[in-house]
Amino acid sequence: MCPDRTFVADMMLGRLARWLRILGVDVLYLNPVDDRELIKIARRDRRILLTRDTRLVQRRGVGEHLLIRENKPMAQLEAVIRVYPPAPDRILTRCIRCNTLLTATEKPDVRDEVPEYIYHTASGFGRCRQCGRVYWEGSHCRRMMETCRRYLNQA
Ligand SMILES: [Zn+2]
């Protein structure tokens, strides 16, 4: 386990970044961003660079990185998890859109922001303090969750 590993993903890995965030992994994703900036961010924040670019990893100054050769997002996810297995208890703790950790929120706070049915049936809510998005159990589709659990069990 290396739960404290953090990453920065290149522009071609947007979907992979989303999946990793669903698993609770800290992944910075900027678009657009150029190679030099990516390398700078990785070094400055001690983030592992995830990239599909074989030329990029040969550039001077590139630190720890993982070259992603797989084309499909799920295969890419497997490739990352194989090398850097995430902590299993962090699933759905992070905003998929902006990578910020979610904060538990009182039910009345989300009264006007979630569908009526959800408000009455969901047990807990989390909010992203950065972009304001509200999450609840079930806001990620069931199939997505099953996929996550399967990957975490394999890891
Ligand atoms: Zn957010």
Counted up, domains total 2
Average pLDDT taken over every residue: 90
Shape: elongated
Q: Ligands in the structure? A: zinc ion
Tell me the major beta sheet. Answer: 4 strands, parallel
Termini distance?
A: 9 Å
Side by side, the strands of the main sheet go: 2-1-3-4
CA radius of gyration is 17 Å
The amount of helix comes to 25-40%
Structure in words:
- The protein has about 160 residues and is an alpha/beta fold.
- It folds into two domains: about 5-90; about 95-140, no CATH class.
- The protein has helices at about 15-20, 35-45, 75-85, 115-120, 140-155, and strands at about 5-10, 25-30, 50, 65, 100-105, 125-130, 135.
- A four-stranded parallel sheet has the order 2-1-3-4, with helices on both faces. The chain has a three-stranded antiparallel sheet with strand order 5-6-7, with no helix packed on it.
- A hairpin with a 5-residue loop joins strand 6 (about 125-130) and strand 7.
- Helix 1 crosses helix 3.
- The longest helix has 13 residues, at about 140-155.
- Zinc ion binds near residues 95, 100, 130 and 133.
